[in-house]
Amino acid sequence: xxxxxxxxxxxxxxxxxxxxxxxxxxxxxxLTTAPTLQGGSAxxxxxxxxxxxxxxxxxxxxxxxxxxxxxxxxAPISLLQPLSASGLLVVAFLAVVYLNERFHxxxxxxxxxxxxxxxxxxxxxxxxxxASAGIETSRYLGFFAVALGSAIAIAFAAMSIPGRxxxxxxxxxxxxxxxxxxxTKALALAIQDHSLPLTVAAACLMALGLLGGLxxxxxxLRFGRALIVTAVNLVTNQVLVVSGGLVCLGESFPTExxxxxxxxxxxxxxxxxxxxxxxxxxxxxxxxxxxxxxxxAESKPLSF
Length: 304
Fold this sequence. Notes:
Number of domains: 1
Strand order of the largest sheet: 1-2
Structural class: mainly alpha
Shape: globular
Distance between the termini: 43 Å
Order of helices and strands: HEEHHHHHHHHH
């Protein structure tokens, strides 16, 4: 598979996964329940509408395309994963026209920056690409020990600081999904290199990251806005995957001037655009009156 074929698959897979995410957000239906028998405040439950399951199918199918893209040795994951941030454009569009979420001017600026950065990153694929050298075992194990330790710390923080759970669950899902995505590439390399121990380790970490990330993301979608949770998730997993590809898999940036410059500027723009969306969106959420709070711990459920 060529680099451009891998890029096309990664972008298509990302669009499918993010469309599925929006449908899942739409498919979470709040159910009001009676006050507890002990006389406490009323609590709220949710159910999943049929469109939620369609969203899950799109997410799984999109991940399959992404996995096929990163299995190509000639396509570095430190290029493909940032390009998958283009899926946030799908979320931004549908969040407005389908979920009726509100955008500020600065949030639209973030979307524009993200779009320009994705284009620049795509241009950096011109010229020769350095194939992944393979898994560097000691760095690989050390890197994921730190990543999973951070995920555990964030999970405890999310349970103990309810007011920041939207942000923290986005970070947690990003750490876990980043672990899953990076180990999708590591698994393909380990199989190609006929290394059974690394194949088993990568498969376990991939499953742990993807399943754990899905749980954290679903919790974030249940109590937060789709765009904000997705943005925080994306910026976290972008940093983890790009750094992991460079540290663990022997990848490097292009050496020619034009691809190197567009790669660096594109990566910076993607992180900047996502952070801008997350920061401004978070400030907007904090500014909502009490009856419109997007993290309704025990008060009002999400409605669409």
